[in-house]
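Weekly modeling sync, notes
Attendees: S.R. (lead), two postdocs, one rotation student

Agenda item 3: backlog of single-chain predictions. S.R. asked that every request posted to the team notebook include the full sequence so nobody has to chase files. The rotation student volunteered to paste the first one in as an example of the format we agreed on. Action items at the bottom.

Example entry:
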Amino acid sequence: MKKQKRPVGKTIMILALIFFYLPIIFMIVFSFNESRSLTNFTGFSLRWYEKMWNDSEMMESLYTTVIVAVLATVISTIVGTISAIGLSKSRKIVQDVILQINDFPIMNPEIVTAIGLMLFFITLGIERGFMTMLLAHIAFCIPYVILSVMPKIRSLDPNLADAAMDLGATPWQALIKVIVPQIKVGIFSGALIAFTMSFDDFIISYFVTGRGVKNLSIMVYTMSKRVNPSINAISTLVVLFITIVLIAVNVIPIIRAKKLGIRPGDIKGDKTPRI
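Predicted structure, as returned to the notebook:
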């Protein structure tokens, strides 16, 4: 008879989930608290959501966060994807050197990167504000995109683009219609990571911003010095937004696969209906 496995792994997993998600649930519940108390729930109210909505500084920080995250994601995804494709056509020694350099910002402590970028902007005489924050976010998002796209490119047939051009496609058509569709999973993963990193960043944003420009992380940091339940309200909206995005990312491919009659996990994307 097989020995029954002790449920130690399941217990640890459950405890880890409780540890990670209980504070989020606690935050969501107290975002609807009638009083300012963060420990005693006195009654249901939308008071703090109304206050958050009427707080122009808070809404401006949310607007700045979304705009910077979207722009940084789009630009870093395009630059990172093109860079990864270019690296795939380079010599191995060049690939190894560039990828080692690319990994350095990821492993480097954020505080060091933040100070380096701040000194860089000061040295060039660039006034810190929205543009410096955007440039900094693009800079630290590009390595993550390259890291996500490179494995997909390596799995492709190196002669795929040449074969497309032999059949009459231009280099641009070979890139857009042949290469990009094959690596779209890696591109999407890189874009999702870039958006998350940009949306969540505090340390680098804090050092490179100026002229009163604040993203959500900096705003929450300044508000945390005093009791303000509006933090719970705006944080709840962020959690709701991320949850909707994750559900859409996971559900839409399943619905699309069912319509095409294929398995959702079919990596090759064979659209032949199953019998």
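Discussion: group reviewed the output briefly. The radius of gyration is 23 Å.
Action items: rotation student to repeat for the remaining queue; S.R. to check formatting next week.
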